[in-house]
Design brief:
ten-stranded mixed β-sheet, 2 domains, 344 residues, DNA polymerase, domain 1, alpha/beta, two-stranded parallel ribbon, 20% strand, 14 strands, TIM Barrel, binds iron/sulfur cluster, single chain
Length: 344
């Protein structure tokens, strides 16, 4: 018995080749793209633009894969978290975050992660595997459906995994989300833990997509103690890559800084951060830590108190930076990255 082709796994060229190999005119590939990516067809049978005979012929040799929704949780604050099962049994998470008029989807780029950040549960799960382009795109297609009647306004690659550690598949997924599903690339942000050479490659492969960097410390000693990636690409290399990142005139890089009590929340840390980022067009998101305590080998990570957080912000603002305090959302549904998959 021949193996059926998963139409969702095919890029533009491969879909064209599939249509040709099936004796179909080229425009059929465009129709398949329209039905899969814009009309969310989950089976070939749903493509009613095709005759019944054509649907039967295609269904004999192809199918449309779909991630399996295993768990959906809703938070009091409107955040919704989904656990999706992959065909090999691994699980990944996507989170829908409402914020005023925005509805942001946070998606995963890998099952697990090899970066091992001390404050992150996905880091504890370890690395399972890279997601394939269609597994990344499918989180968007399913969440877009689950969000109805509301419309997704933004996508951030801040879920499980380091996107720049799976850059080719992330770039291909972005290509399909923008070209096939017609989502604006200016509303997509890819967040890295600091893979410096990947930032340059990302600029070339996903031009126009926004960049966020999870920096979390302004000195190499503190950063290396909570983010092992810093031993490979210390701050000097990371900042050099940020200075080279091509930006459109009014665009800025987003800097994420998770505030950890007595780890990176001192006034001296804020001053060092302000100096480090001087001259880089950026906005800084300060995120008081909201994860579980005693996260790393008994080491306690806690949320700083409000005064400390505000004083930290004040130093940055006085130095001329845009710094915004972001409240973590969805705490009651384990919305921080890896918390749900880690339960599985
Ligand atoms: S914070 Fe991001 S890069 Fe770091 S371990 Fe977690 S998923 Fe990986």
């Amino acid at each position: 018995m021949s193996v059926k082709t998963d139409l969702k796994s095919l890029d533009r060229g491969a879909l064209g080749a599939f249509a040709k190999g099936s004796g179909l005119p080229a425009y059929r590939a465009g129709q398949l793209i329209h039905w899969i990516y814009e009309r969310n067809a989950g089976t070939i049978e749903e493509i009613t633009e095709f005759s019944k005979k054509l649907r039967q012929e295609l269904a004999a040799k192809a199918f449309i894969s779909r991630l399996q929704l295993k768990t959906a949780l809703s938070s009091e604050d409107g955040t919704r978290k989904f656990l999706f099962g992959l065909s090999d049994g691994n699980a990944i998470e996507s989170v829908l975050i409402p914020d005023g008029k925005r509805l942001t989807l946070c998606i995963s780029s890998q099952a697990g992660c090899r970066m091992g950040c001390g404050f992150c549960l996905t880091g504890k799960i370890g690395f399972k595997r890279d997601l394939l382009p269609h597994e990344i795109v499918d989180q968007f297609l399913l969440a877009r459906q689950l969000a109805l009647p509301e419309t997704l306004t933004n996508i951030v690659f801040m879920g499980m995994g380091e996107p720049l550690d799976n850059l080719d598949n992330v770039a291909e997924a972005i290509k399909r989300i923008t070209a096939f599903a017609r989502f604006s690339k200016r509303r997509i942000t890819v967040s890295t833990s600091g893979v410096a050479p990947g930032i340059r490659e990302f600029a070339a492969k996903a031009s126009g997509v926004k960049l966020a960097v999870s920096i979390n410390a302004a000195t190499d000693s503190v950063r290396s103690s909570i983010m092992p990636i810093n031993r490979k690409y210390p701050l000097q290399k990371l900042i050099a890559a940020l200075r080279d990142f091509p930006l459109a005139p009014r665009d800025r890089i987003t800097i994420e800084y998770v505030l950890l009590k007595r780890v990176n929340d001192a006034q001296a840390d804020a001053k060092a951060l302000a100096g480090l980022l001087r001259g880089i067009p950026c906005k800084i998101n300060l995120i008081p830590y909201n994860g579980p305590e005693n996260c790393e080998n008994g080491r306690a990570f806690n949320m700083p108190d409000e005064n400390t957080t505000m004083a930290f912000q004040d130093v940055l603002v006085r130095a001329g930076h845009t710094a915004i305090i972001r409240k973590s959302k969805g705490k009651d549904i384990l919305a921080a990255c890896g918390q749900l998959a880690g339960k599985g």
